[in-house]
Amino acid sequence: MAIRVFVTVVIVLAVISHAFCIYEDQVGLMDWHQQYIGKVKGAVFHTQKTGRKRVIVSTEENVIACLDLRHGEIFWRHVLGGNDAIDGIDVAMGRYVITLSSGGSTLRAWNLPDGQMVWESFLQGPINSKSTLLVPINLKVDKDSVIFVFGKGSVHAVSCLHGDVLWKKDFPDDSFQVKQVVQVVGTDSTYVVGFAGLSQFHAYQINARNGELIKHRSAVFSGGFSGEISLVSSFALVALDSSGSSLVVVNFQDEISFQKTDIRDLVDDFVGMAVILPSKLTGMFCLKTNNHVVFIRVIDEGMLELVDKINNRMAVSDALPISESQNAFAIVQQGISDIHLSVKLASDWNLDLLKESVKMDQQRGFVDKLFINNYVRTDRSHGFRALLVMEDHSLLLVQQGEVVWCREDGLASIIDVTTSELPVGKEGVSVAKVEENLFEWLKGHLLRLKGSLMVANPDDVAAIQSMRMKNSEKSKMTRDHNGFRKLLIVLTKAGKLFSLHTGNGRVVWSLFLNSLRKSESHEKPVGLNVYQWQIPHHHAMDANPSIMVVGRSHPSLNAPGVVSFVDTYRGKEVRSMNLVHAVVQVIPLPFTDSTEQRLHLLIDFDGRAHLHPKSPEAISIFMREFGNIYWYSVNSDDGILKGHALKRNCVGEVADEYCFETRHTWSIILPLESERIIKTVTRKLDEVVHTQAKVTTDQDVMYKYISKNILFLATVAPKATGNIGSATPEESWLIAYLVDTVTGRILHRMTHHGSQGPVHAVFSENWVIYHHFNLRAHRYEISVIEVYDQSRADNKDVWKLVLGKHNLTSPVSSYSRPEVLTKSQSYFFTHSVKAIGVTSTAKGITSKQLLIGTIGDQVLALDKRFLDPRRSVNPTQAEREEGILPLTDSLPINPQSYVTHVVKVEGLRGIMTVPAKLESTTLVFSYGVDLFFTRLAPSRTYDSLTDDFSYALLLITIVALVAAIFVTWALSDKKELRDKWR
C-alpha cells in the first residue's frame, strides 16, 4: 500500500512539474530570441586555407565575437560587461585571440576555434593611462611568442602561451603619455614613444627579450603637440602642433629631429584646425580638414607631399600586407544611393587593385569604419573583401560588388521602447487555416499525437514546430482578436528606429532619423525617448498612429532639442523640428485633441514649459486644465527635489502663446553629507487598477492608496555610493522615501541600516518593490512597501453604503493630507539584479508577477504573493484561505519560473511589459545585447484555449459522441422490444 501511495505521489508531482514547462516543439511559438554584438570597433580576419573563414570583432557593447565570413553568423561570443571596455584585439600564433580591456589592466587569451578562455592576466601599474596592445610577428623568447601591452603607465611583455608577465618597464615621469609602442621587424628592439607635458617628446628603446633600457632620448618642440599621432614608418611619426594648423614629422631613429610644415602650404583652402585620422598606412597618413580628407605622403628627410583630396564622406582602412614588399589599403566614398570601394597600393596611388560600386540602403547612413581582407583567386590574382561598419551600427560584408550579408547590430543598443497597434483587418481576421488535403491532415494529427505521447524523434519535433509556424497567424500584419500581434518601436543609440513584429521579431521597417544624424549643425546628436503621439481609436480606419522621438543636437543638457514625428505603419517621418530651446524633461499630459494627438509639455534648460502640438485647439484644451498641472524634477548631484507648476506665458521679445513660465511649489533638500540620491521610480501613467478595495481576513476590507503622483526615492550614505563593499555596515545605510509630487509631502520613510546600492525598483498600484544589498548579512534583499488609504476605512459600514454617505467614489486629492497606512517587509534574495519589471494586463484583474532580470542575464517570474508584507510565520486559517503564504527569510527560486527558459539575454538592460486584449495574458519584451519576447499568463490562460488545441479532434469527438448516442439509442429500443416480447 505504501509503495502504491509513493508511486501515485511521484506521478502527480511529475504531472504538476510538466504543467509549468513547455515542450521542446513549443519553443519559438510564443517567444523569440535574437542575438547581436553591437557596433564593431575592431576586427581581425582569420582566413587560412584550411578551416572556416572567420573574422574576430570587438564592439562598443564590450562583446568579443567570432563571425562566419560566409553568412555572418556567430560562431562564439563573450559579453565582458559594462565595466570591462575592450581596448584592443588581435590574433597570436594563429590560434589565440588576444584581448586587452579595463584600461589596460586585463589581458586574456581565447581559443580561436571554440572561444574558450585559455588564460587571463591582471596587469598592475602606478597610474591610469591610455592602453595599447601589440602582437609582434616572428618575435620569440625561449620558443614562446611575446605580447606587448602598455597600460597603467607601464609596458609589459606577456607570454602568449601561459599569460605570465616576462618583464615590466615603468617610466619615471608620471606625466609621460605613451602614444605608440613600435616593434622594429627583424630586431630585438622595441620603441615606446610619447609626450610629456605639451611640448616634450620622449623615445625609449627597450630590449624586447629582457626589458632592459637600451637608450632614452628626449627633445622639446617649441610649438607644442596636440591630438593623436600617425606612425608612418618604424622610426617616424606625424603629429599636429598645439594650434592644429601645422604638421610635425618626428624622426627618432638616431637623434630626435622635428620637421614642421604649414598645412596651408599643402592644402590651399585650409582654415581652422585639422585632425589626424587614426589610420595605419605605410609612408602615408590621413588628415581631416574643414571640407576634405587629405592624403599626405612622407618623403625623404620629413618632407610632405600632397597625394589626393577626397570629400569628408569617406572611410579608410589600415594597411594590409599582400606580399613581402607591398601593402594595400581601401577607401570607401559615399555616393547618393551607392558606395564606391577602391583598393590601392601604398606605394602607387594611381594603381587601383580593385574599384567597384555597391548599391547601399540609404537608411544605413554613411560608412563609419572599414576593414579589408585579401584572398587569392584561381588566376593567382588578389581579390578583396571589405567589412563595413555603417553609421546606424549595422555590419556588412562586401565582396565582388555585392553585399554578401548584413547584420542589424544597432539593435544591441536600444535606449527606449514603445508599442503600436497593427492596422485593422478589413476582411476580418481568420481563426484557423484549413489543411491542404486529407493526407496532410492525417499526417499533422499523427505528429501531434506522437508529440503529446512524447515518442517523437528529433525529425518529428522539427516537423511539428515547422507545421505550427506555418499554420500560425502570429506574423500577419493585421490586428488579432486577442491583441497578441503588435509592433515594438525601438530607438537605438545610433538614432535609428526599428519596428519589430511581436509574432516573430522580424524588422517590419527601419528609419534613420535625419534629426539624429551627424551634420554640421548636429555634431554629436543623441536620442532620448520615444513617446506615443497619436493613437487613433475612433479614426482607426482612416488615420495611422504616430510616435514622437525626442533628442538633442549635442549630449550636453543645454543643447538645442530635436523632435521627429513618425508614422508607425509606413515607417516614414511625417515632420521634424529643430527646437531653439533645450529639452530636459518631457511630460505627457492626459489630454488629446479632436485628431487624438496627445498633448505634451517640453521643459527646457531654463525651466520654461513648451506645449506641443502647437495648435489653437491644443492651447484651448490646455488652458482649461492650466491650474491642475504639476510635475517634479530631481537633481541627484545636489540632492534637491523640486515641485513645479505653471505660472504665466513667457515674457520675451517675440510673443509665444505656447511657452509658459513656471514656478516652484515645493522643494526637498537632502543633506549631501549624509544622503545621496541613487534611484527614483514612479508608476506607469497608463497602468490600469481593477479595484481599490482589497478583501483581507475575516471579511475585512483595506483600500489601496492609488495615486499617480507618488514618487519612490532611494538614498544612500556618501561612502556607500561605490561598489558593494566600499563601506562598512556601520558607515552604510539606505533610506527609502515615498513622496507626493504635488505637495512635496513625505508619506513614508524607511531606513535600512547596513544596506547599500545599487537599487533597482518597480512601482505598481499601491506598492513598491526594491532590490538592494545587506552588508550585515552579506546577501541581497528585496523589500516591499504597501500603502493603504485610512480615510476610507469607514466605508465597510453597510448602513452608510445604503444611505449613500460613504466616500468610496470620491476622488483622491493630494491637496488634503492623506491618512495612509504602510506595511513593509524585507526578504533575502539569492541573485544580483540588472532590471525589474512587473506584469500588466488590460483590466488589472490578473494577479501580478514580478519580472526580475538576474545577473545571469535571464528573466525570472516571481509571484507577488511571495512579496506580501502581511506574511507571517504561522498564518491563520483565514489568512491561508486568502492566499497569504507562510513567512520565510528568503524568496524561493523555482528553475521552471524563468521566463527566458534556457536562453540568455546577454547584457540585459531593460524589461518592458505590454497588456494584451486578453485579460489573462501580458506581453514581455526584454532587451540588452540580445532581444527576447514572450507571452506570459500569470494566472494561467483561464479565459482562452491554448494555441495547440486541436479543433479537428474536438469536432471528431463530438461527431463520435453523437453517433454513439444514436447507436446506443437504437440498441436500447431493440433490447426493450425483445424484453416486451418475452
From TrEMBL:
Major localization listed first in the record, in broad terms: endoplasmic reticulum
> Per the record's keyword annotation, is ATP-binding included, yes or no?
no
Query: Where found, per UniProt?
Result: Endoplasmic reticulum membrane
Q: Which residues cross the membrane?
A: 949-972
The protein's UniProt keywords, in alphabetical order, are: Endoplasmic reticulum, Glycoprotein, Membrane, Signal, Transmembrane, Transmembrane helix
Its GO biological process terms?
Answer: protein folding in endoplasmic reticulum
Tell me which residues make up the ER membrane protein complex subunit 1 C-terminal domain: 764-981
Superkingdom classification of source: Eukaryota
Give the signal sequence positions.
1-21
Task: State the family named in the UniProt similarity comment for this chain.
Answer: Belongs to the EMC1 family.
Name-wise, this protein is ER membrane protein complex subunit 1
